[in-house]
Amino acid sequence: MSEEAALALMEARLALKPLRQGQVDGFCGVYAILNAVRLLAYPDRQLHPAESRRIFRKAVHILSRHRLLKMAATLGLDPKPWQTMLDNLIPEIASIAGFSIRQRQLFKAKAGLKASTATAAIRNYIDQGCPIVLILDGVYDHWTVIAGYSQHRLHLFDSDGYRWINPASVGLDDRLPHFLRPESTFAFERVPDG
């Protein structure tokens, strides 16, 4: 299962193009969710652009209802408001995409967590066919999706056009170029039917 799931995720990353966000909005957290769902749906089905728009509109409605829209549109979302949006969006995703998703936190906050430990956890989930949705703090300060890896790269499926990052530059140390927050680093998985 693991090799097959990893190959399916790689095939999806290569066959699909990530949805792109506008150049002046802060909706990268919404786009990261949409792009992860699109990866999980492939190859069984490809979300039609109208379906992606429905999920996006529902996310905007949720943000508005929770008085988070202005912040999301101008500054982006921190982990707690993003989680509120996702928790409310999951039923709509299931209704439109035809499957449910679940998120799993990759690691807990630990002083001195090494980049190699963080990237090993990321690779482990990717090997299971699970895209990683996370905030890359530091250089990017941006919600994105990690959807593959090679020896010297973590491959992104990103709404802003970023393509890859060096695994050695990733960890929980805020002195690294790409600082991970444990509370906003998740593997997304498709919940099996039944």
If you had to describe this structure to a student in words, what would you say it looks like?
This protein is α+β, with helices and mostly antiparallel strands and 194 residues long. Helices cover 43% and strands 22% of the residues. The protein contains six helices and seven strands. It has helices spanning 2-15, 28-41, 49-65, 69-74, 79-97, 115-127, and strands at residues 101-105, 132-138, 142-150, 153-156, 164-165, 170-171, 178-190. Strands 1, 2, 3, 4, 5, 6 and 7 form a seven-stranded mixed sheet that branches. α2 (28-41) runs parallel beside α5 (79-97) and α3 (49-65) packs antiparallel against α5. The longest helix has 19 residues, at 79-97. It is globular. The model has no long low-confidence stretch (mean pLDDT 92).
Global structural class: alpha+beta
- Give the integer mean of the pLDDT values: 92
Distance from N terminus to C terminus (CA atoms, Å) equals: 18 Å
Count of strand segments:
7
Q: Based on CA inertia axes, which overall geometry fits?
A: globular
Helical region count? 6
